[in-house]
């Protein structure tokens, strides 16, 4: 019986010690969206992405202009339809309608391909930047002994009061001046 009491006392002691250690873990937060916007690499990536999007948009606009010309040519030819030339013009209209249909399909395929390419380009441009920010946050967390770093830009964070805002430290780690794009601290 005494042995059981001793085991229970030791177990309770270990449990309370474990809770005390856990209660003292350091917590921090950072707004990752603001951090990313402060990084100069984002501006470069944004410019490259806009250029890429404009190129794709220009191609699609050119294709649409060509399709509109084909549609107008079809309408013009249709206006010349009469009883006298019905057979010949009808065959030409069928061929033109098929061309317009085929061209529209090609245009849709080009648009889908452009969307895929833009997604790939976006991933190519932004993934290394996000990885760099994440690595800096992890490095600061390890250096400063934070057990948890919450992202205050995420909608899932309902409330935070306390913990240290490590934005300035992470910016320093990334070589970004503390005054660069310093948005007001947000509390949710």
Automatic annotation (TrEMBL):
GO MF annotation terms: unfolded protein binding
Keyword check for Glycoprotein: no
Gene3D superfamilies hit by this protein: Skp domain
Signal peptide span: 1-23
Pfam families, per the entry: OmpH
GO cellular component terms listed in the entry, alphabetical order: cytosol
GO biological-process terms attached to the record: protein stabilization
Domain of life the protein comes from: Bacteria
Keywords for this protein: Coiled coil, Signal
Keyword Aminoacyl-tRNA synthetase set for record: no
Coiled-coil annotated spans: 49-124
Family note: Belongs to the Skp family.
Name of protein: OmpH family outer membrane protein
Origin species: Pararcticibacter amylolyticus
Lineage: Bacteria, Pseudomonadati, Bacteroidota, Sphingobacteriia, Sphingobacteriales
């Amino acid at each position: 019986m005494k042995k059981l009491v001793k085991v229970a006392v030791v177990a309770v002691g270990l449990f309370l010690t474990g809770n005390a250690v856990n209660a003292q873990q350091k917590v921090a937060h950072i707004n990752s969206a603001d951090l990313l916007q402060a990084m100069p690499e984002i501006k470069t990536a944004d410019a490259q992405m806009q250029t890429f999007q404009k190129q794709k948009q220009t191609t699609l606009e050119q294709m649409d202009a060509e399709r509109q010309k084909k549609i107008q040519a079809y309408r013009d030819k249709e206006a010349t339809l009469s009883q006298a030339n019905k057979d010949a013009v009808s065959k030409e209209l069928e061929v033109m309608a098929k061309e317009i249909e085929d061209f529209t399909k090609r245009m849709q395929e080009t648009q889908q391909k452009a969307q895929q390419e833009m997604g790939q380009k976006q991933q190519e441009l932004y993934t290394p930047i996000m990885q760099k920010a994440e690595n800096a946050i992890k490095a600061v967390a390890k250096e400063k002994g934070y057990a948890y770093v919450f992202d205050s830009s995420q909608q899932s964070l309902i409330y935070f009061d306390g913990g240290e805002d490590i934005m300035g430290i992470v910016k320093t780690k990334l070589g970004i001046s503390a005054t660069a794009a310093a948005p007001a601290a947000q509390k949710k």
